[in-house]
C-alpha cells in the first residue's frame, strides 16, 4: 500500500508551481500598491527602488515558507487512530542545513551592502545647505532657523526654498534647491522625525542630537509627523513643510526675522 506521507516527485512539482504563481502574484501586488505618498525630495527615488527590491526578494521567501508549512500540515497531519503515537525520529540533513544557512546569509549580506550604499547616496552632504534645528516635544514640533538678520527664531511651520526647474511654479512643480540639514533634538521623551513625502526619518532622542538631510524637489506642502509612540497626543504631533519658491521663502524669512526683533 502507498504510504500517504511519502513526498513524491509530483508533490514537489506541484509546490514549485504553486510557489511560482503565488510569488508572481505577491510581487505584482506588492509593486502595484503605492506604499508612500507623492515623492517630494531626491531621496525618495532610491528609497522607493530599495523597497521594490525588498518586496521582490521577501515575497518568494514568504511564499516558500508558507507553501512548505501548509503542505506539511496537510500531508503529515494526525489521522484517526494515531492520537497516542509519537512521530518518527528525525536526524539532521547536512546538505539541507548548509543550503538554508548559506542562501539567507548571502541574501542578508547583499541587502546590507545595497542598503548601506543607498544610505550613503541619499545622505551625502551638499555644499549648499540650510541648517534647521528640529525640537521634538510632547506633542509638537518646533523648528529653529537663522533669520535674515542672523538671529535665531522658532517656527511651528517649516518653509524651505526650491527653485522651479520649469515655467510652472504652483504645487506639484518640479524644483531644485538647497539641501535642508536637520539637527534633531528631543526635549522630553523619544520621538521620531519623519517627512513621509521625502522618506527620511530619524529618531529624536533626549540628550543627543541626531541628523538627517532632505533635498526637496517638488513645490507643495507635505506633512511632518512623529513616528515614535510618544504619549497620549502622539497622533496629533504633526507639522507641515512648505516647499516654496525662493522669492516666497525670502519673504517668509524676512517677516519671521522682523517679527522676532521688532
Ligand atoms: Cu512624538
From TrEMBL:
Sequence ranges assigned to domain Cytochrome oxidase subunit II transmembrane region profile in this UniProt record: 27-126
GO biological process: ATP synthesis coupled electron transport
Enzyme Commission numbers on file: 7.1.1.9
GO cellular component annotations of the record: membrane
Residue ranges of domain Cytochrome oxidase subunit II copper A binding in the record: 127-255
Transmembrane segments: 12-33, 53-76, 97-116
Membrane disposition: Multi-pass membrane protein
Keyword Transport: yes
Primary location class: membrane
Keyword tags: Copper, Electron transport, Membrane, Metal-binding, Respiratory chain, Translocase, Transmembrane, Transmembrane helix, Transport
GO molecular function per UniProt: copper ion binding; cytochrome-c oxidase activity; oxidoreductase activity
InterPro entries given in the database record: CcO_II (IPR045187), CcO_II-like_C (IPR002429), Copper_CuA (IPR001505), Cupredoxin (IPR008972), Cyt_c_oxidase_su2 (IPR014222), Cyt_c_oxidase_su2_TM_dom (IPR011759), Cyt_c_oxidase_su2_TM_sf (IPR036257)
Cellular compartment(s): Membrane
Coiled-coil portions: none
Family of the protein in this entry: Belongs to the cytochrome c oxidase subunit 2 family.
Protein name: cytochrome-c oxidase
Organism: freshwater metagenome
Amino acid at each position: 500500500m502507498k504510504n500517504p506521507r511519502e513526498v513524491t516527485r509530483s508533490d514537489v512539482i506541484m509546490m514549485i508551481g504553486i510557489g511560482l504563481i503565488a510569488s508572481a502574484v505577491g510581487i505584482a501586488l506588492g509593486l502595484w500598491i503605492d506604499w508612500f505618498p507623492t515623492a517630494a525630495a531626491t531621496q525618495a527615488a532610491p528609497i522607493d527602488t530599495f523597497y521594490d527590491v525588498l518586496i521582490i526578494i521577501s515575497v518568494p521567501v514568504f511564499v516558500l515558507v508558507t507553501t512548505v508549512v501548509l503542505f506539511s500540515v496537510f500531508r503529515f497531519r494526525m489521522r484517526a487512530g494515531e492520537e497516542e503515537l509519537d512521530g518518527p525520529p528525525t536526524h539532521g540533513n547536512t546538505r539541507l542545513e548548509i543550503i538554508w544557512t548559506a542562501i539567507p546569509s548571502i541574501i542578508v549580506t547583499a541587502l546590507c551592502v545595497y542598503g548601506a550604499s543607498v544610505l550613503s547616496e541619499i545622505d551625502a552632504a551638499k555644499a549648499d545647505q540650510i541648517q534647521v534645528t528640529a525640537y521634538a516635544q510632547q506633542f509638537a514640533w518646533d523648528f529653529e532657523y537663522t533669520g535674515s538678520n542672523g538671529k535665531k527664531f522658532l517656527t511651528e511651520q517649516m518653509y524651505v526654498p526650491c527653485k522651479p526647474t520649469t515655467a510652472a511654479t504652483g504645487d506639484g512643480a518640479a524644483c531644485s534647491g538647497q539641501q535642508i540639514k536637520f539637527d534633531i533634538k528631543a526635549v522630553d521623551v523619544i520621538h521620531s522625525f519623519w517627512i513621509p513625502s521625502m522618506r527620511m526619518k530619524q529618531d529624536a532622542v533626549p540628550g543627543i542630537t541626531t541628523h538627517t538631510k532632505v533635498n526637496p524637489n517638488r513645490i507643495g506642502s507635505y506633512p511632518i509627523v512623529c513616528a515614535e509612540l510618544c504619549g497620549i497626543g502622539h497622533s496629533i504631533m504633526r507639522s507641515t513643510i512648505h516647499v516654496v519658491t525662493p522669492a516666497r521663502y525670502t519673504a517668509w524669512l524676512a517677516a519671521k526675522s522682523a517679527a522676532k526683533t521688532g
